[in-house]
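dumping this here before i forget
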Amino acid sequence: MHIKNEYIRLLFQKVQNQCIGEIYKATGQVFHTEMATITRWHIGGVQDPHLDTFSNDEVREDPSIETKVHSGDTPPSREWTVIVYLNDDYNGGETYFPPTDYYPFGHQVEPEVGSGFLFQGIYHGHGVFKVRRAPRHTMAIWFTADINKAMTERPVDDLEHNEITIKQFLDFEVSDALYNVEDISKDPERWAEYKRISKIS
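structure:
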């Protein structure tokens, strides 16, 4: 949300839309972008296997969120994850999946510039081997079924804001939206009206 360059924002949007379409084809459910980042992994950067359930910002805002999610009191923010490789001129830094029932011998993803992979990060533990030569650059995007947790598409100037703190300053309520998926399925005339208004605007 801090990137102002329209070309880069458009690239993010293309990846997000492609993934949302693929998730819908696989699940029949609409997902929304929860958070999107470009990450520079410095030499020595490493990440132990983990599940994608919530962001570091959510932990800073509410240190008990991990306990709440694991106890079932709070739904996780994320379900799907995509990682896109922006370079491959480094050693190490491979994304890997440790041995599980799904990957009995584990799995390692070999990076290729421009390639990426979409998976349910909430169910599949994954990590990053230590980056050994030259920095690793990736685009990572997380998706949520909860539209209230969707990130803003507006660029944000203040670097002190994150995806949680900015929401109190946005002049938008989900309930104010012109339509939602439930409305469309219940009232086809409303969908026709929405399309008519869209063409006029």
